[in-house]
Write a sequence for this structure.
C-alpha cells in the first residue's frame, strides 16, 4: 500500500460494501435511482464525488483506470482523480479507451466503441430527470413508481412550441428498458445513441443527492421524442481541425485574440490516436 | 340504470373536528349535483373525499367506471385511482393556479393529459389543444402563451379545457367561478352549461353561490356544520326550502 493511512481505494470496506449493494440493486432495476449513504470525499460536491465513490467501490488492483472530463484526459479534474486512484488503489492508469477496464467520465462517452467487460462510471450532478418540472421528491418518486411520465413529454412539447424543435442539447432524457425515465447526466445528446444496447456496464453516481443508478450491458435506452419531431443528434459542417474526423463530437476553440476559432474533437484520446496511427484514421 | 357515483356514510374528521358527517347520495349519469352551504360547512372536504384526494374515516364511494366497472374509489390502488382521475375524471379548482402548470404554455397545459396517456404526435396534440382553446372561447393565437399572461377568467376557462380534453365522464368542480367578476362568471357558467349538455358530462359542483347552483345544477345538497341538512331537486329546494338553515340561505340572497 502506497499510503497506509488510508484503506485500499480510500473508502472503508463497510462503505464499499454498502455502495456495491446499491450498485447491484441499480443493475437489477435498470434506470431506477437507488439511494446510498454518500460519504464525504476529498473533493468538493460537483467535482465528481458520486462517480469517485462508485469507482472506489468497484476498482481492484487488476484494473486499468481512465478518467475523462469533457472528453479530455488532461484537465485538472481528470488528472487529479486519476492520480488519486493511482495512489490509494495502486491501479494502472491510461488515457487509452481500449485499454481501460474502468472509465470514470464527466460530460462525455468516449468515441471509441466500448466493449464487454468495460465499466463506464458517470459523475451525475442532478440524478432526477423530473426535478425541474416537479420539485417535490415524494411526488417524483410516485411518478417513477407509477410510470407517469406525461410531464416529461410536456417539457419537450414546450420546447418545440417555443423554439420550433426540441432544444435540449445535453442531459437529454432517456427511457431505459421501456420502464424508467433516466437522466443520462450532462452528456451531449450526441452521445445518447451510444448508451443504447452498449456492451459496457454503465454506472451513474450522484454524490450530493446520494443516488446510484445503472444501465446493464445491452439494455435498450431510448431518447424521448415525438413521432413528428424525432430525436436527432448534433451535426457540424466542419471536420476536426487536427485529425479530420467527421464523426466525432467537436468543441469550438478560440485560438487568438482576433476571434479566430477552430473545431476540434472533444475526445482527446480518439483525436490523438487518429493522428499518430494512420490506420486508426481509416 | 346504475348510478355513476354513489357515496354511503362518508365521514371525515380533522382531529376532533368533524368536517363531514355521514354523507350519502347517488349521482346519475348526465346529472349535475350541487353542494351548497356556507364557508366551513364541509363542502370541499366532501368533494375531496369523493374525488379520492382525501381518505374518509368511514363510508365508501363507488364509481361506475367505463374501463373497470363498479369500483370503490378508496379501495383502488393509487396507480388505478390516478389513472382514473386523469382519464375518466376532471377536477376544476377554485384557484386556477392549482390546476394549471403556470410555467408552460396553454397548449402544453391542454396537451398534458393526452401525452400522459401516450399521445406522441406533436402536430396532433397541438391541433387538439387549439380546438379546445377555441371551444372555451379563447383566441387560438394565445396557444403558445403562458397562463401567467392570462386574465383570471381565461385561466379558469383554460383549466376547464385542460380537464375536458380527455373527455371525462365525471367532473368535480370546486367553486369554479369563485373570485371572478359577475360578467366573467356569467360567461363561464354559460360555457359550462353548454359543455355539460353537449358532452353528456356528470358533475359534482361545490359552490356557496345559490345563483350558480340554480343555473347549473339539477339536484342540490345543502350542508351545515359537516352534515347534509336538506337535498332535493334544485328548484324545489330553492323555491320551497324546508330546513331552517336552507330558508336562511335562500333569504340571504341579495335582491338586485
Amino acid at each position: 500500500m502506497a499510503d497506509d493511512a488510508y484503506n485500499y481505494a480510500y473508502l472503508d470496506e463497510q462503505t464499499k460494501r454498502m455502495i456495491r449493494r446499491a450498485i447491484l440493486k441499480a443493475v437489477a432495476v435498470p434506470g431506477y435511482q437507488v439511494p446510498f449513504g454518500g460519504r464525504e470525499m476529498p473533493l468538493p460536491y460537483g467535482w465528481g464525488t458520486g462517480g469517485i465513490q462508485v469507482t472506489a467501490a468497484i476498482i481492484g488492483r487488476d484494473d486499468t483506470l481512465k478518467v475523462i472530463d469533457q472528453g479530455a484526459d488532461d484537465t485538472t479534474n481528470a488528472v487529479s482523480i486519476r492520480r488519486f486512484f493511482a495512489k490509494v488503489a495502486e491501479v494502472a492508469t491510461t488515457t487509452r479507451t481500449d485499454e481501460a477496464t474502468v472509465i470514470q467520465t464527466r460530460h462525455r462517452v468516449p468515441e471509441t466503441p466500448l466493449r464487454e467487460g468495460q465499466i463506464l462510471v458517470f459523475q451525475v450532478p442532478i440524478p432526477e430527470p423530473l426535478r425541474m418540472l416537479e420539485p417535490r421528491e415524494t411526488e417524483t418518486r410516485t411518478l417513477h413508481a407509477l410510470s407517469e411520465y406525461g410531464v416529461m413529454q410536456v417539457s419537450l412539447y414546450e420546447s418545440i412550441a417555443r423554439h420550433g424543435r426540441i432544444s435540449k442539447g445535453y442531459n437529454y432524457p432517456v427511457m431505459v428498458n421501456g420502464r424508467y425515465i433516466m437522466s443520462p447526466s450532462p452528456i451531449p445528446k450526441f452521445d445518447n445513441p451510444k448508451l443504447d444496447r452498449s456492451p459496457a456496464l454503465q454506472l451513474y453516481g450522484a454524490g450530493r443527492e446520494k443516488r446510484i443508478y445503472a444501465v446493464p450491458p445491452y439494455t435498450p435506452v431510448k431518447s424521448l421524442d415525438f413521432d413528428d419531431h424525432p430525436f436527432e443528434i448534433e451535426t457540424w459542417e466542419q471536420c476536426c481541425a487536427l485529425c479530420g474526423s467527421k464523426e466525432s463530437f467537436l468543441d469550438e476553440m478560440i485560438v487568438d485574440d482576433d476571434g479566430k476559432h477552430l473545431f476540434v474533437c472533444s475526445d482527446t484520446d480518439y483525436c490523438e490516436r487518429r493522428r499518430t496511427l494512420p490506420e486508426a484514421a481509416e | 340504470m346504475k348510478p355513476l357515483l354513489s357515496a354511503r356514510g362518508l365521514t371525515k374528521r380533522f382531529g376532533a373536528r368533524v368536517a363531514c358527517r355521514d354523507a350519502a347520495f347517488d349521482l346519475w349519469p348526465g346529472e349535475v349535483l350541487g353542494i351548497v352551504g356556507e364557508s366551513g360547512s364541509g363542502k370541499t372536504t366532501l368533494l375531496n373525499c369523493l374525488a379520492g384526494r382525501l381518505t374518509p374515516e368511514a363510508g365508501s364511494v363507488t364509481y361506475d367506471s367505463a374501463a373497470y366497472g363498479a369500483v370503490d374509489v378508496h379501495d383502488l390502488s393509487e396507480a388505478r385511482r390516478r389513472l382514473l382521475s386523469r382519464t375518466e375524471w376532471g377536477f376544476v379548482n377554485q384557484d386556477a393556479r392549482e390546476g394549471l402548470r403556470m410555467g408552460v404554455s396553454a397548449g402544453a397545459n391542454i396537451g398534458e393529459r393526452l401525452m400522459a396517456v401516450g399521445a406522441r404526435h406533436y402536430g396532433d396534440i397541438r391541433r387538439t389543444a387549439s380546438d379546445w382553446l377555441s371551444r372555451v372561447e379563447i383566441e387560438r393565437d394565445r396557444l403558445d402563451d403562458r397562463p401567467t399572461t392570462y386574465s383570471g377568467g381565461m385561466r379558469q376557462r383554460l383549466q376547464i379545457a385542460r380537464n375536458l380534453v380527455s373527455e371525462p365522464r365525471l367532473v368535480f368542480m370546486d367553486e369554479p367561478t369563485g373570485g371572478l367578476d359577475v360578467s366573467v362568471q356569467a360567461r363561464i357558467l354559460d360555457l359550462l352549461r353548454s359543455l355539460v349538455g353537449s358532452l353528456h358530462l356528470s358533475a359534482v359542483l361545490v359552490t356557496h353561490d345559490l345563483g350558480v347552483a340554480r343555473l347549473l345544477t339539477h339536484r342540490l345538497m345543502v350542508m351545515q356544520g359537516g352534515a347534509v341538512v336538506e337535498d332535493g331537486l334544485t328548484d324545489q329546494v330553492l323555491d320551497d326550502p324546508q330546513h331552517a338553515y336552507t330558508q336562511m340561505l335562500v333569504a340571504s340572497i341579495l335582491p338586485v
Q: What stands out?
A: The mean pLDDT of chain B is 93.
